[in-house]
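Retro notes
What went well: the complex prediction finally ran end to end.
Inputs used:
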Amino acid sequence: MSLNEEVELLRNIPLFKNIEPSKLKLLAFTSERLVFQAGQDLCVEGDMGDAAYIIIGGTADVMIQTDDGPKTVTQVGQNDVVGEIAILCDVPRTATVRAVSEVTALRISKDLFFRMVTEFPQMAVEIMRKLATDLQRTTGQLSRALGRAGG
Amino acid sequence: MEKSVFKYILRYSARQQVWLMIVSAASFPFLYLFYELPKNIINNAIIASPERFPVELFGVEFGHIQYLLTLCIGFLILVIINQGFKYYINVYKGLTGERMLRRLRYDLFARVLRFPLPTFRNMSQGEIIPMITQEVEPLGGFVGDAYSLPAFQGGQLLVILAFLFVQNPIMAAAAVSLYPLQVYIIPKLQSKVNKLGKERVRLVRKLSERIGESVQGAQEVHVHDTSNRERSDFGNRLGDIFDVRYQIYRKKFVIKFINNFIQQLGPFFFYSLGGYLVITGGLDIGTLMAAIAAHKDLAAPWKELLRYYQMMEDSRIKYEQVIVQFQPAGMRDADYQMKEPDTIAPLTGEMSLSNLTMLDDQDVAVVDGVNATLELDKSIAIVGGGGSGRESIAMLLARLLDPNKGRISIGGNDISSFPEAITGRRMSYIGQGGHVFSGSLGDNLFYGLKHRPISDNPDEKLVKQHKARASEAKASGNSEDDYFAQWIDYDAAGADGPESLTREGLRVLKMVGLDEEVYQFGLRGAIDPVDKPEVAEAILRARTALREHAKGPGMADLIETFDRDKYNANATVAENLVFGNTVGDAFDMDKISEHPYVLSILEKSNLTHDFVQMGHQVAATMVELFADLPADHEFFQQFSFISSEYLPEYQAILNRSDRDNLDQLSEEDRAQLLALPFLIIPARHRLGLIDESFQARILQARAMFSLEMPDDLRASVEFYQSDNYISAANLQDNILFGKIAYGQAEAAASIGSLISDVIQEENLYDIVVEVGFGFDVGVGGARLTTAQRQKLVLARSIIKRPDVLILSEATAALDASVEAAIMKNILDEYAGRSVIWALQHPELAKSFDHVIVMSGGEIAEQGTYAQLKESGKALPQLIDAHAAS
């Protein structure tokens, strides 16, 4: 896959949809494309994160450690971004992401990520939007869960 | 050492000095003949009346012309004889001087090795180095002249003087009448110069000390922005030296002035006083003329003597000033290091300390009347707070310091009577910061096994060279040990040869936790396959084995092996074209696009146009990507093909060209574009430019590149061939023989473990470690980390298997967990032998058989750890204090 194809892919990702193509090209060029075999981990819960991944192909399980052993909470696939929380907030990885099939991902190092965010405010806004949406959804889920527990 | 330079010279070269005088004396008759003969040629041959011929010489009759020619040939022979003498005398003088200089330097250095350690607190290497190197240098020139010159010039002077006195005592007296004045005044002036000379030497020493300080403290200078201060300090010192030197010049020329003035006073008196006497009839003209001529004859030797006097004074001062620095109080005898005892018995039994006392610089007792008995089959910890004397006592026990009072004895023998051959082999000491010498890691590890040469070097050429040089070394009193001999004492390490020593080295490195790092050094180290064919072969086996392994599941994509018939997508275009390791500097991979041979190959493969075109595309992409970024943006360094300073240049090239008519570009522009494609790694850069047909053409060019390589370049590239060891590459790259693939998660780690698997399977671990022993540690071990240096120093002491191992905070630089592990290993190794360990952390004493608690230079209490912790006072206090801090 060449750079131009990667740029096309990136444009379909909501996080980058408002960013001009030439910047996406720079992002693609300066990030590393990695192939994970099925069973390899993109990130491991509890580790300190040093990169975020944009999944270009394949699917991966997002798992968290519970008292009953590891539990898959969701699946991610093409166009999903994983691992950005740990590098944004400097906290350990909140979940393990394990490739189910062969996964191709763009690895954006912490440095690169921050540089991109400071360089291109549109991206920061996009990330805020995504995080806010996530937060709203999680809050909704929580209140429903609390409602259920209370009722 | 001899107090005066003359005594030193006489002691070591009396015979040469006498020989010099004899030879010089022997040369005199010929010199006399040489001056005499021309007069003879003119008077007796050229202007002689023909009637006198034939003449008889040595019983043979000569005609006029024959006679002239015979005398001329005689003259020529005398020229050769005289020059021969001169040559011989000068060379002999040089030889004598050089030997003496060699001896002096050697003596000084040997003395440095015997200095008591505290001396080095007040004497820096910055001072010592110039003394041994340049300050004594002029002495070499003086030695040859020291006795012979005054003897001969003085002799000549006396002969001429005697001759004059015989002819006319009054005039002779007149000719030398002013000498007493010179003899009186000149030394007076010279003494001032001498004083300044001493000052100059002192200042220059301080200057070199200062340079040493600045070099060592370079980091601090940067940290604190004090370069101005450093420069000013240095400039100020140079100013001091300038003042002194300038004064010396002025004084020197004043001496010259006065000297010449007095010299010319002679003629003044002859002309004035003598003239007056001649006119008034008190003196006849002939006598006056003779006196003037005599004075002139005397001038040459007299001048030489004065010059000699100045040179002598200079040498005398230099010698005295150097010597005085090389006899510090408490210096050990030469025998202490030179004596080799017949047998060296192991140190066993007890070590007893009686009334052991040591004072520091300010006469404060740091060890104060200590009495103790240490059993040499136990591990002993010495603990105590700062200033308790625990470190000093460790150094005293190791005989690195000498006590001011009291004694230490082992088995009834005072250890101060032990030569270094015993203390240095049967004991060892490791302090906080042991020194690591420049050289290889192995040199350092086995340093403590090299006490004296054991057997000749297997290389006979080196043995011969040593033998050829031995007599000269002896003549200069230098060491006669062969430096290139085999010095390593395998027995001492419990080994019987190089291989078992490597194993032993590895065992000890494991003990101190340095084995893995040395193994890594080995992997990244290179060998010469001609030197070590068996290693190269083993590595090639590993290469084959690795390739088999790499076929396994999940591994296939991790390495892209070098294959002459395949394009390597994880290598640059340049690497794909050259397809080998460059040797020497005929090919510079960074400037490969400028190499005429490379360009000719491109041209022949019809690739030039494609390269320019591709370069154009790369440049366009780079400009698109990076043009908006500020010039100092890190991306340039990390990712761009074009550094920020050249980006505008490429932008300009792009502006004045378009893809379809690149041929119209100037040569320079084309060259600029041509350079870019060489840098592309398709798997990494994903620019989509290197398609299959391009790859196929590069493969053709690759074949042509090696096939048509001109002879003079042939040695500059080692081509990748699966059954060839690449000497320019390190072990790891030789095993790998390919590129680690980009874009495979954790490829490097997987391959690293794959390589170590292969090395285990093929039993190459020892070989790799041995290559690791060859790792160059840099100046003072600078290429090692502090922890690595400390571990190496520990290993160096352990491998020589001393009976008594003394450590003083030797592991303080290491992490607590590492420290504990190493301590356990060492204590296990030394079970039943003596370990004496001065500890900073009192809790660590728990693992020792016996604990001594020091306080204020005295033993506060001693016993087992459990006893002292239970019923002692000082140890619990110390532990509490340590925990609180």
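What we learned: Residues 121-150 of chain A form the longest helix (30 residues).
What to try next: split runs per interface for comparison.
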